[in-house]
Every structure is written in C-alpha cells, then in structure tokens.
C-alpha cells in the first residue's frame, strides 16, 4: 500500500503534468503555427530555441533557470518587484521549469500537424470570405486535431517523468515540490526497494501504455 508521502507525490505530479500540458497547448499552438507557416529568417533560430531542451542536459537547464529565477537573477528580481516572491523551490517554479523543459514535446507534433494541412484548405476558406482567424479556428484546428492529441499526451507523459530539472528548480520538499520521480529516488537512497519498485512499476506501465496508444493510432501519420 502506498505511503501517504507517495500518494502526495502522485497527486502533485498529476497536478503539475496537467497544468503544464494546458499551458503548453495554449503557448505552443501559436508558436507551432508560426513555425509551420513562417518564412522568416528567424524561423530556424526560434525552432532551435524551442528544441534545445531535447539535447540540453536537464541539470544544465535547471541550473540556469535557478540562476535566472533566483534573488539576483533578472527574472527573480522581476517576480519580487511584482510581489510574486521567488519561484525556486515552489510549485510555481516547477510549472515554469516544466513548461520550458517539455516545450518541444508539444510544439513539434503541433508544427508537423499544421505543416501537413497545406495551403489548399486555407485557400478554399479564403475564397469563402473567411478571415484568417476564422480559417484558423474552423479549418486548421479541426484538421490538426490528431496533432493536438499527440502533443497533449507527450507533454503530460514527459512532465510526469521529469527528474533533473525538478530537482534543480524545485528541490525535494515533501507535499510541496516532491514529485513522483523524487519519491522513487528517496526510496532508493533509503534502501526501501519495495516502495521504489511499486512506484517505478507504475511509471513503467504508464509510459508503456502512452507509447502503445500513440503507436496504435499512428504516431507519425499525417493528420
């Protein structure tokens, strides 16, 4: 039977992953749309920045976020001036770090889905006097629905499995910033392998089911 601290970590992880996924879909959709359709010279730069968390070690990303959000960092000074306090070692700090770290797992599927739509459906909407906003909401979004499902699932699953970034920016505070991966780490350090096995097996099954669902519906298939 899971310990109360483990249940707290599971609830906190689900809350973090859910909120992060919603924020990523809201923020990632316009970024992905712009990347899929823009011919700007900055497209490659923006694309590289969005994709950077895929190749950057999580500890490095977490360290620089800690510096930026710390009391002497520019973002830390700004949050203090706004009366928000410091974000490191808080749930809000975990959300900020998770949004940045999981960004490519949401933006890339959306970008591919938008790019696969092509110009013809949007041109057809324009001939019917649809405004760009109407064409986006009534044509592009419905056609990109499979991409949104993939992006949401990947964003949620990736956030659930975070370790390095949450350790650096959130620490390991029970009931406050201790997520599932940190709870497993704590059990292993304490040689409580039975508890670690229970949580790790749950994450293993969850990850397998996520991948199975994505491959069953044709992960990389065109929308």
Write the CATH architecture name. Orthogonal Bundle
Strand content: under 5%
Report the structural category.
mainly alpha
SSE pattern: HHHHHHHHHHH
Largest sheet geometry:
none
CATH topology: MetI-like fold
Number of strands: 0
Q: Give the number of domains.
A: 1
**Relevant CATH superfamily:** MetI-like
CATH class: Mainly Alpha
Q: What is the first-to-last residue Cα distance?
A: 42 Å
Percent helix = over 70%
Could you say which overall geometry the principal axes of the C-alpha atoms support? globular
Explain what the structure shows.
The chain has helices at about 5-35, 45-55, 60-70, 75-80, 90-115, 120-125, 130-145, 145-160, 165-170, 180-190, 195-215. With about 220 residues, the protein is mostly helical. The radius of gyration is 20 Å and the shape is globular. The termini are far apart. The mean pLDDT is about 90.
